[in-house]
Known about the structure:
Layout: H1 9-45, E1 66-72, E2 77-83, E3 86-92, E4 99-105
Antiparallel strand pairs: 1-2, 2-3, 3-4
Amino acid sequence: MSDQKPPNPEADAAIAKVRRMMVIIMTATFVAIALGFVVIGYRLFHVGESVPPFADVTAALPAGAKVLSTAVSGEHIVVTIEVNGVTELHTFDPDTLKPLGRLRLETKH
C-alpha cells in the first residue's frame, strides 16, 4: 500500500549536515544582531562621557589691550588683541584651554 522507499543513509547524513550548518549560521546571525544592539545601546547611554567638563578660565589682558576678534576651529581657539597699536594673536587648545602660542605683529620703521 505504501509507495515509500526505504530511507537512504547517504541522504540522511546530508540532511543532518545541512541542519547542523543551518543551526550554526542562525546562531552566528543572532549573535551578530545582539552585538549590534549592544554597541548601539552603549553609544546611546555613554554619549555624554566623551565631552570634557565645562571649564571656567580667566585670561588677564595687558593694560590698554582690546580684543579685536576670536576664531574657533576643531584644533585651536585664536584671540586677536591689540596692545598699544601692536596686534597679537593668542592661540589656545580648545579642550584644555591652555595657551599654545602667541604671534606678535609689529610694523617696522
